Molybdopterin molybdenumtransferase
Amino acid sequence: MIERRIPIKVMDAVNKVLTFSKQGESEIIPLRESYSRFLAEDLVADHPVPPFDRSPYDGFAIKAESSATARADNPIEYEIIDEIGAGSVSEYTLGEFEAIRIMTGAQIPTGCNAIVMLELTTVYERNGKMYMSIKRPFKSGDNLSLKGEDTRQGEILVKRGTYITPGIVALLATFGYEKVTVVKKPTLGIIATGSELLEVGEELIPGKIRNSNSYMIEAQAIRSGAKPEYIGKLADHLDECYEAIKRSIEKVDYLITTGGVSVGDYDYLPEIYNRLGATILFNKVAMRPGSVTTVAEYNGKLLFGLSGNPSACYVGFELFVRPIIRSYVHSSKPHLQKAVAVLGKDFLKPNPFTRFVRGHLTFTDGKLYATPVGLDKSNVVSSLAEANVFIVLPGGTRGYKEGDLVDILLLEDQTGSDTSWAESFK
Ligand SMILES: Nc1nc2c(c(=O)[nH]1)N[C@H]1C(S)=C(S)[C@@H](COP(=O)(O)OP(=O)(O)OC[C@H]3O[C@@H](n4cnc5c(N)ncnc54)[C@H](O)[C@@H]3O)O[C@H]1N2
Ligand code: MOO
Ligand SMILES: [Mg+2]
């Protein structure tokens, strides 16, 4: 008899998976490799930035007080006593009516309290000495880039669990982090099941298709912050699949399979979970595509049984695998970022289940538009190429019209969100 599965709500399914969140250990890597990893320690400013008062312009360092009476008809003259570029420090102490020629980034000399831009000065020579004059007064503090104005010593600049952007790489370099403590990537084993599957390099023959899911999952794993390990593709053979899954789960942090989770004669995953004695968290979710997505727990590890249908597999990964990976790398924002967009095209199918329509996001006149792409069918692969958002259409609704406001989940966003988007789809 065919097993009857009870669908659970998407939010409940996401929450069930997240109850198994665990946090990975840290590792130390070279700064150059830190981009796109997650910080395992707070990034603290161990010195002020800039570390000394410096000139923000190419110009002259002066004592502002001496310029008080400078006017167009009363230029004030300064003797140029030294010249410094960035990286050099003047040994002189500025006196009244003395100036030091200084370049952007150079430490300001002792006695200086204002910088005059080169463009506002006239420079000349008299009796073998160099002078400059100015025709307007300056105040103490004019044009100074003060020590600590960028960051103060002891400040937490970036919290642990933050995704390392190019800007954070710059901060790490600023504070001398040749090595960076990041969270180890979780290993994600991937097995594709299906007797119809050919490898990518193989010629098509009747009844067979190329395995695309495992490659897609590898890329999704990388995007989410995990380290994919392709274990291989297996024919629909119960014992072989069982052995491979049992063996593989020991070697990875999470195991993903695609295919074989539905009710077909050769859909062996349900029987494999049973043989393993794994606890099924759910095996049917009130969503489309990906309703057959199954998640099971075995010896403290999660097995994600994603659908064989490419679109369903893709959705299953983003909704259930991505947040667990983000939690593992200590992200305080493990959830997909939700936004509201204008629907770019009619979507008239009524929705008994919450639907995750693959969409393409564009920005026109400052507004977000999300347009469904390709055929909205679970077994379609071509729509995935353009998809950069899911358009979330709640269950129990009629169709949607172009121009309606819809919720979207951003797939290319790396920051994430600290609140679960699923909370709004109770
Ligand atoms: N009687 C029923 N039939 C089906 C049901 C149902 O409730 N009752 N659910 C349908 C839904 S919804 C989905 S989704 C699929 C899920 O199927 P499986 O997860 O069991 O996956 P398979 O049967 O192995 O394959 C489905 C489909 O996907 C292709 N596939 C599989 N692996 C790959 C791969 N690595 N790369 C590319 N394509 C792959 C496979 O050839 C099949 O066409 O079940 C429905 N049926
Ligand atoms: O799980 Mo199936 O993908 O709902 O379409
Ligand atoms: Mg099947």
Summary: The longest strand covers residues 354-364.
